[in-house]
Task: structure prediction
Amino acid sequence: MTRKKFYLVGFVFMLAFSMFLAACGNNGDNDSNGNDSAGSDTDGGSGVELGQKDLTLPYVAWARETPVSYLLAAVLEDVGYNVDVKQVEAGPMWSSVADGSADFMASAWLPSTHASYWEQYEDDVVKVNEVLDKAPLALAVPSYVEDINSIEDLKDNKEFGDSVDWTITGIDAGAGIMANTETAMEEYGLDDWKLVSSSEAAMIAELKSAYNKEEPIVVPLWKPHWVFGVMDMKMLEDPKGIYGGDGDQIYIVARKGLKEDAPAAYKILEQYTEDYDMVEELMPPVFDEDKDPADVAQQFMEDHPDLIEQWTEGVK
Result:
């Protein structure tokens, strides 16, 4: 072989080898469909891919659920999602996640409070994460109401009944705690009593007014709730366990298919953690100081970067 032919063969070989290396590199950057897979959770990549970027999060304007929903939305938006946070009633919250018109919610109180919703929709939703393991519910009175310590104390109690017009001041009619209260009234024989539905905000306004005047009042309450941080309240004993004994667990519940459609969002929801101290930090600014829950969520993220890093680990 002449020197000229030798150099030509060498040049062709090097060109082919370079093209082979380039092809291998491209295979690492694209999946089989030609989509960029740099965000996939494989071989030490940068994290789980976002997938579907537009998410809908329904919530009911309850004490914990409002700031927590906005916090989850803020964390998801921080990694690249667009989250539509929608205030609804309890029924539409469950039905929208079940039928896929919403993606997830952070407000499933199980097994007692939302038992009827779970029975109706359990085949269409997924429990993603138990975020609180004890969330007790009960009828409650201010602690200065000395002679009322149990639901049983309400039965045929003319003096106390007359003092509150035989009325239990409730929240929105679709709330699970309202259904529990109706059952409690039947089981404890509170035939003279009536349950008035309104909204949580209206109930709290009535409670504040009575509390400031040291007047008696009976309301359905639950923990965590910011009221216990600013008012001295007592939850009435419930010997029959109508309100679930030691309390429900609170779950994040998602529509079926969210894990495949928005893998990074699902991973964040799985990694999200919550405790009483955290919720009690989030609630008062929203409800006692009337701050925008979106602003409260942003401030919480700034104050707790370690938590945000934990929740988004493997995503960004």
